[in-house]
């Protein structure tokens, strides 16, 4: 039996990036029940990848019968794609998560062990400073640093980005800073900002230019001393080879790629091509974050703070100490309903 629950989640403060600022995030949770066991998954739709809370409600039930035998999880993505060729990645992610957890619970294992992954620690996660008025961004950075977060990912994409990064470098001089322009810069602005970021000791730059501007990214990368990471340019595992010519690394998110197995496949292809790996997330509950956390020991950079930003996370059980997330040790995804 398959059951969906739809719930609006809320961030503690409005969360802003270059494209929008929101406080409410429609999320859908799927429960696959068979033989007294339950597997769970989360859909965290994002309009940039062609989904909304409403599309998830319509598409989810159309794909349920693809689950079939959950032990055939290797073939699940093909069955989902046969029923829904259009991407709809977060719905597919939810169903893939549910199949994986059901099998892991049957085997009394954490999902990462079911997948044959080794027990290596997750790199320290960054904590996001969302785009807002400058005093607000200073306060966010200050509060995060005070709570023990040493890596901050700063959202940019304005005409005064230089001023923002200078102010935050002054506010938290010891912090490791990463920046994410969310595809908002022009090529000249990106070239200008490169010098600013390098002078302020920023560690990496995520998605400076438009998603389809691979030539622009390749030219920028040729000038850069810090790694440039693709996020919006990556929708599907088949994008990875093209991105290797334009970026130093890729940001893998289960909700945009179609699930943890799709992310794992992209990760392996990316490694073969010499790319660095970031495991990232949407604003999603601890269930969705767990789906990424089980892979995150394989990453160079972790950005898994989505659930930490929520006021009403319906799941608990992930063990955080400031930016350090412990590898989940419980059976299945290792999280429980609050
Ligand atoms: Mg990003």
Question: Any overview of this molecule?
Answer:
- By secondary structure, this protein is of the alpha/beta class.
- It has two domains: 2-108, Enolase-like, N-terminal domain (Enolase-like, domain 1); 114-337, Enolase-like C-terminal domain (TIM Barrel, Alpha-Beta Barrel).
- Helix content is 35%, strand content 21%.
- It is built from twelve helices and 15 strands.
- It has helices at 53-63, 76-83, 89-106, 111-114, 134-146, 161-171, 187-199, 214-223, 240-243, 254-257, 260-272, 286-293; strands at 2-16, 21-34, 37-43, 127-129, 151-155, 176-180, 205-206, 228-230, 249-252, 276-279, 301-302, 315-316, 320-321, 324-325, 336-337.
- The protein has an eight-stranded parallel sheet with strand order 4-5-6-7-8-9-10-11. It has a three-stranded antiparallel sheet with strand order 1-2-3, sandwiched between helices. A two-stranded antiparallel ribbon has the order 12-15.
- Helix 1 crosses helix 3 (89-106) and helix 5 (134-146) runs parallel beside helix 6 (161-171).
- The chain is globular, with a radius of gyration of 19 Å.
- The mean pLDDT is 97.
- The structure holds magnesium ion.
- Magnesium ion binds at residues 180, 182, 206-207, 231, 251.
Which CATH class of the largest domain applies here?
Alpha Beta
Superfamily at the CATH H level of the largest domain?
Enolase-like C-terminal domain
Let me know the number of strands: 15
State the helix count: 12
Query: What overall form do the CA principal axes indicate?
Result: globular
Distance between the termini: 22 Å
Q: Please give the order of strands in the largest beta sheet.
A: 4-5-6-7-8-9-10-11
Total separate domains: 2
Biggest sheet character: 8 strands, parallel
Q: Approximately how much beta-strand content do the residues carry? A: 15-25%
Tell me the structural class: alpha/beta
CATH architecture descriptor of the largest domain: Alpha-Beta Barrel
Calculate Rg over CA atoms. Answer: 19 Å
* Small-molecule components bound: magnesium ion
Could you tell me the mean pLDDT? 97
Helicity range: 25-40%
CATH topology of the largest domain, by name, is TIM Barrel
Order of helices and strands, N to C?
A: EEEHHHHEHEHEHEHEHEHHEHEEEEE
Low-pLDDT runs of 5+ residues are none
Family: Belongs to the mandelate racemase/muconate lactonizing enzyme family.
Protein name: Dipeptide epimerase
Enzyme class: isomerase
Domain Mandelate racemase/muconate lactonizing enzyme C-terminal: 134-227
């Amino acid at each position: 039996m398959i059951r969906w629950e739809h719930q609006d989640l809320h961030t503690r403060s409005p969360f802003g990036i270059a494209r929008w600022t929101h406080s409410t995030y429609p999320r859908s949770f799927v429960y696959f029940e068979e033989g007294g066991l339950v597997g769970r998954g989360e859909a965290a739709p994002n309009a940039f990848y062609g989904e909304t809370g409403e599309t998830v409600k319509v598409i989810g039930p159309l794909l349920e019968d693809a689950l079939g035998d959950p032990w055939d999880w290797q073939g699940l993505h093909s069955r989902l794609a046969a029923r829904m060729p259009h991407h709809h990645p977060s719905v597919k992610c939810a169903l893939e998560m549910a199949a994986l957890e059901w099998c892991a619970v049957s085997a009394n294992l954490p999902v990462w062990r079911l997948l044959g992954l080794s027990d290596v620690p997750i790199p320290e996660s960054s904590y996001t400073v969302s785009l807002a008025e400058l005093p607000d961004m200073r306060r966010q950075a200050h509060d995060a640093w005070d709570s023990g977060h040493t890596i901050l990912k700063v959202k940019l994409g304005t005409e005064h980005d230089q001023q923002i990064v200078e102010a935050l470098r002054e506010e938290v001089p010891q912090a490791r800073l990463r920046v994410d322009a969310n595809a908002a810069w022009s090529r000249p602005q990106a070239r200008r900002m490169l010098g600013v970021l390098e002078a302020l000791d920023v560690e990496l730059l995520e998605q400076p230019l438009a998603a389809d501007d691979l030539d622009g990214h390749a030219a920028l990368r040729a000038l850069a001393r810090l790694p440039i990471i693709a996020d919006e340019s990556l929708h599907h595992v088949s994008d990875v080879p093209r991105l290797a010519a334009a970026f130093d690394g890729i940001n893998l998110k289960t909700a945009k790629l179609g699930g943890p197995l799709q992310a794992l496949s992209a990760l392996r292809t990316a490694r073969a091509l010499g790319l660095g790996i970031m495991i990232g997330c949407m604003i999603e509950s601890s269930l969705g974050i767990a789906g990424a956390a089980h892979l995150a020991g394989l990453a160079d950079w972790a950005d898994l703070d989505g659930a930490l930003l929520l006021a009403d996370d319906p799941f608990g059980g992930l063990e955080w100490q400031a930016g350090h997330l412990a590898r989940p040790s419980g059976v299945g995804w290792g999280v429980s309903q609050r």
